[in-house]
User: What shape does this take?
Amino acid sequence: MDKKNALRAGALAAGTTLMMLLMSSPALALTRDDGDDPGTGLSVIETLGLYVLAPIALFVVIAGLVMVLDRSKEEHRVTSRNIKTRSKADAKA
Assistant: This one.
């Protein structure tokens, strides 16, 4: 029964994907809509800056603020210095 449900789900996903690909044909993008006024395109440098460098910079700023403004206590942090283990001899006693 489990194999039948997996096959049914796969067929449904494949059919849905196929229909979405057929309905969103790139040829429809060539026809312009009324009132459509596209601007100039982005250069390669602008595209890389906007979609690569800006998110990386934002991530670095947020991570830096989190590290600088961290007010947690030292004893609550899990590091190799504050892990206390007992030997097996102590545990049995």
